[in-house]
Design brief:
Order of helices and strands: HHHHHHHEE
Low-confidence stretches: none
Distance between the termini: 36 Å
Number of helices: 7
Shape: flat
Largest sheet: 2 strands, antiparallel
Number of strands: 2
Strand order of the largest sheet: 1-2
Radius of gyration: 21 Å
């Protein structure tokens, strides 16, 4: 049984993210949520697939390879997300009359939950690639095993193996090894 003492601050953040996306999904409805979901997933996929194409231009201004990747990825992500959202607003206007309001909101709630899960997995993926695996924030988290599976699936969507490598979880610099007894003394 899970007690409140087992819940980490990271778990609380994940639950809050999920709840915000659920409530927002029910509030704004399916069509706008669909556009926002496609913006999140589609932009992530396009940025992961094509940020390598943008990196040579960004390298002209920035020398740090990780920062070049980050700027390329974020820039491409934001531009494509904006395009998806604009397309969604147009689609929402077209479909506004055709869909019943309560059904639109119910489907928005479901899609908001999916979007919240994807966002939480992205957050987890960025955290495990930048902090050590021995960090208690993630190691003791109850949500980490679920988010790790989602992050693995999201990582598969990145086409370039070099970029995919940036999101591999970091191993601790010093591994904890169990203390072995040798003739009654700890070594």
């Amino acid at each position: 049984m899970i007690s409140l003492a087992d819940i980490t601050s990271f778990d609380v953040i994940v639950v809050l993210i999920f709840l915000v996306f659920l409530i927002r999904g029910a509030w704004i409805g399916f069509m706008r949520q669909l556009a926002a979901f496609l913006a999140l997933v589609g932009s992530y996929w396009l940025a992961g697939r094509y940020s390598g194409e943008l990196m040579p231009w960004v390298e002209r201004f920035i020398q740090n390879p990780k920062l070049v990747f980050l700027v390329s990825f974020v820039l491409l992500f934001l531009v494509t997300a904006l395009l998806f959202i604009l397309a969604g607003k147009v689609l929402h206007r077209v479909m506004e009359i055709a869909i019943l309001g309560w059904f639109d909101r119910f489907l928005g709630l479901l899609l908001g939950g999916i979007k919240g899960a994807v966002f939480a997995c992205l957050l987890y993926m960025f955290l495990v690639s930048s902090v050590s695996a021995s960090n208690d924030l993630l190691r003791k988290s109850l949500s980490s095993p679920l988010l790790a599976r989602g992050a693995e699936q999201l990582n598969l969507l990145i086409h370039d193996p070099r970029i995919r490598e940036y999101f591999v979880p970091r191993q601790p610099a010093i591994r904890e090894e169990p203390v072995q007894e040798h003739e009654g003394r700890a070594t």
